[in-house]
Fold:
Amino acid sequence: MRVLKLKKSGIKRVRGLTIGNFDGVHQGHQAILAHLVSVSLERNLIPSVLIFQPHPAEFFSPSKAPIRLYGIREKVRSFLDVGIEEVCILPFNVRYAKMLAEDFVRDVLVKELSVQWLLVGDDFRFGSGRSGDYQMLQKLGLELGFDVEANQSVKVGEVRVSSTAVREALSSGDLNFAEELLGKRYNIRGRVVRGDQIGRTLGFPTANIHFGRESFPLSGIFIAYVDGPEFKQRPALISVGKRPTVTSKGDVCIEAYILDFSGDLYGAMLNVIFVRKIRDQEAFTSTCDLIAAMKEDEINARLYFELNVT
Structure:
């Protein structure tokens, strides 16, 4: 197991812990993490998070696993922002897939992580066959000397906040509802790499952003803000998808056309903050039609930014 120490823990020796995937670190996750930090500090414990890498769903059935909202770096950054001091990354493999729930508690939570207080979601399941639940944790806590608390679900309107709900909002293009669920606008970070420079030949030079994942929860043309190494909140148009007009490759590309910007961004780390979806991607019959659509996208984006100053 790898333990990332985000902050100095002083003389604290035992942990307050929560367990989960925390994909997106949405408002439900934020409620759990805030409560974890508060109680851990009151009890002089290290506020810690245990996550699995890869996610169990990716281990058991990679082709059917849900598309990840955040990579590991985005998660760790979000944990640090709310006061988490340690992130414990457990390499999910055959050993842990077959481990009985009770053995997981004894060997991992107690022996390896010295858990004194455990906070889990009200629907938390664990262990081989997902046989472990909150009631089992309570029973073992009494036996092994740690306290257990269940954190209740968070709702936005009538919708339970979950990573699945966020994915559904993003895939449907409803970025406003996704923002409500996440508590912030959806964003991704990635490094600018050299592409085929087709956008430059079309009059729309773009930054090709490598984000380290083969799938993405969004697809289409978007209005966005971009943060770079020397600028913040620059208006931009973002294309996410497979560029059906210019290439037959199946890889997902994220390209940023930063309005009124010229400069060399190769190697720079950019943060893209998605604001609104303009349209789906289209396979145009000619390059002229593609350029005309891109010009119309730019007009719509500039109009949006004129009317929505942040």
